[in-house]
Amino acid sequence: MDIQTIGLIASIITIIMFISPVDQIRDIIKDKTSHGVSPIIYGMMIINGICWVIYGFGINNSFIIIPNAVGAVLGTATLFIIYKYRSHKE
């Protein structure tokens, strides 16, 4: 297996991993509460994704840029939903 194939497989797996919060977003919207959901992990997901994207551009590697950009965007969307449905008493 060549290195390009490994990069493609790793990118696909990373995107699948970053898509996993979509179920949580759906539950938050359905229940209209983000009680019990920590925003810290999603903040770190955004920071991590941005750092990897910058690094990916630095070495001109789309296998790093694309999945981590997806992760940063989905982390941002999740964080937005968490705060939108955060109750005032939490």
TrEMBL record:
Keywords: Cell membrane, Golgi apparatus, Membrane, Repeat, Sugar transport, Transmembrane, Transmembrane helix, Transport. Its main location: membrane. Gene3D superfamilies: 1.20.1280.290. One of its GO terms (cellular component) is plasma membrane. The chain crosses the membrane at residues 6-25, 37-57, 63-83. One of its GO terms (molecular function) is sugar transmembrane transporter activity. It is found in: Cell membrane; Golgi apparatus membrane. It is a multi-pass membrane protein. It comes from the Archaea. PANTHER family: RAG1-ACTIVATING PROTEIN 1. Belongs to the SWEET sugar transporter family. This is Sugar transporter SWEET1.
